[in-house]
Structure to design on (296 residues):
């Protein structure tokens, strides 16, 4: 009896030791994952001389090795003042990002939800074929469609305009696929009961489909925000005037050594909206990813 008790105590001790080792390993991995964010925030509060001392080997081509402490020795807000008060082009690009992102999301909210409802709840000829085309288009990278998109936008005289980025984004197939997965979970019997009670088709969509599929709609909006807030390839391909560039392509313009502090501050300001949206829609985002991972 005593021997069994000692054996169980020894097993619990080994289990707790293994658990502590696992937690320690996970903590190290989490710190390594967060280090770029810590690096970014700490650099935005460092003075230019301090940045030159630690990163001179990288940003100024000096001899030696780069070093980077987790906290600045002499914190300063100078770089944020330069970005927010002395860089009017930063606000122009910020406003361009807002127009592109919310223009695309507003369009997807109208077009994507209706298309997803149609695929999920109605039968029509070639339905599976059309949906297969949607999925194929969703899997194609931007580089594959870049030439055809450019030729069409040029024909419509939409190159070098923000609409040349907003319109293709509105008709993206990815939000349709995400929202479709949530609409298919709504019982058909519920819709039939509503039809028997005299509900019209638009009322089924507005009063039943949207409320019950709201998780999918929000997940698609969160994913859409994260994608279009950080666009790089489309603006560089379809826009020529720098006054139309979004915030995501602002950093390549401030690559000189003297502006390295501004680059850190601009990165933090660009990162904050995406972080807030992610934290606010994290639960919906997980549901959307899980829905997107389910094979058709």
């Amino acid at each position: 009896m005593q021997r069994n008790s000692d054996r169980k105590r020894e097993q619990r001790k080994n289990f707790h030791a293994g658990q502590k080792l696992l937690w320690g390993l996970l903590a190290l991995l989490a710190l390594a994952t967060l280090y770029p964010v810590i690096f970014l925030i700490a650099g935005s509060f460092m003075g230019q001389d301090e940045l030159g001392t630690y990163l001179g080997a990288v940003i100024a081509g000096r001899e030696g090795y780069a070093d980077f402490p987790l906290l600045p020795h002499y914190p300063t807000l100078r770089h944020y003042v330069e970005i927010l008060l002395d860089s009017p082009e930063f606000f122009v690009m910020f406003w361009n990002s807002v127009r592109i992102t919310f223009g695309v999301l507003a369009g997807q909210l109208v077009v994507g939800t209706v298309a997803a409802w149609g695929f999920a709840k109605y039968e029509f000829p070639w339905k599976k074929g059309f949906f297969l085309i949607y999925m194929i288009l969703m899997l194609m990278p931007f580089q594959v469609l870049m030439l055809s998109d450019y030729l069409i936008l040029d024909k419509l005289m939409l190159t070098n305009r923000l609409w040349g980025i907003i319109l293709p984004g509105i008709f993206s197939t990815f939000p349709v696929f995400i929202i479709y997965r949530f609409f298919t979970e709504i019982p058909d019997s519920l819709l039939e009961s509503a039809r028997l009670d005299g509900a019209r088709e638009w009322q089924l969509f507005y009063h039943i489909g949207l409320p019950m599929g709201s998780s999918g709609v929000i997940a698609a909006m969160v994913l859409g925000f994260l994608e279009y807030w950080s666009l790089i390839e489309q603006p560089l391909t379809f826009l020529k005037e720098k006054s139309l560039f979004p915030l995501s392509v602002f950093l390549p313009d401030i690559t000189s050594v003297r502006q390295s502090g501004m680059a850190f501050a601009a990165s933090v300001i660009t990162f904050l909206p995406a972080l807030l949206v992610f934290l606010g829609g994290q639960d919906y985002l997980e549901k959307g990813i899980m829905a997107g991972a389910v094979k058709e």
Notes: Residues 11 and 170 are 58 Å apart (CA to CA). The mean pLDDT is 83.
